[in-house]
């Protein structure tokens, strides 16, 4: 499969739900366009409304194509096949930040499934500096990551699967 995208089961399902919602939005927008054209409002307002709805429809169509492409290339990483003692895609990791004496819980996910609005565990993309540094690490390992704000050192405290 060209350019496979490894995703978690949860991420795949979330992407599928997004695609379903976008398809519903497309149907609603098409119905609104038809309704606008049929309305008896003056010609100028009807044209402006139709133009806006067509613009909305174009962006919805683009998002649908993007989601269909991602889902067609997605390969779900099954938990049963993952090592329990090594950080891989889908791992939930507790990191200790000694500089601030705090612990962070993050889940390593692919870039296409990161959801900034997701509730619960903070998601870290596998192509981010922290994500790349996490891959393959084991409990107890200490590592340093260079970020825009400077270098940050973490210790892996715990690894679990989602």
UniProtKB/TrEMBL annotation:
Coiled coil: none annotated. GO terms for molecular function: translation elongation factor activity. Residues 7-76 form the Transcription elongation factor GreA/GreB N-terminal domain. Residues 83-160 form the Transcription elongation factor GreA/GreB C-terminal domain. Keywords: Elongation factor, Protein biosynthesis, Transcription, Transcription regulation. Belongs to the GreA/GreB family. This is GreA/GreB family elongation factor. It comes from Deinococcus navajonensis. The lineage of its organism: Bacteria, Thermotogati, Deinococcota, Deinococci, Deinococcales.
């Amino acid at each position: 499969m060209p350019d496979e995208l490894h995703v978690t089961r949860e991420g795949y399902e979330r992407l599928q739900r997004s695609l379903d919602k976008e398809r519903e939005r497309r149907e609603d927008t098409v119905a609104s366009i038809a309704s606008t054209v049929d309305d008896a409002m003056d010609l100028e307002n009807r044209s402006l409304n139709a133009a806006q709805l067509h613009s909305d429809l174009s962006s919805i169509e683009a998002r649908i194509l993007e989601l269909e492409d991602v889902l067609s290339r997605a390969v779900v990483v099954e938990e049963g096949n993952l090592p329990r003692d090594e950080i891989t895609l889908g791992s939930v990791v507790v990191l200790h930040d000694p500089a601030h004496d705090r612990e962070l819980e993050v889940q390593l996910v692919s870039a296409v499934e990161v959801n900034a609005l997701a509730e619960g565990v903070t998601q870290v993309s596998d192509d981010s500096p922290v994500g790349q540094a996490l891959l393959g690490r084991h409990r107890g390992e200490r590592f340093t990551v260079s970020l825009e704000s400077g270098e940050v050192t973490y210790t892996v405290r715990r690894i679990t699967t989602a």
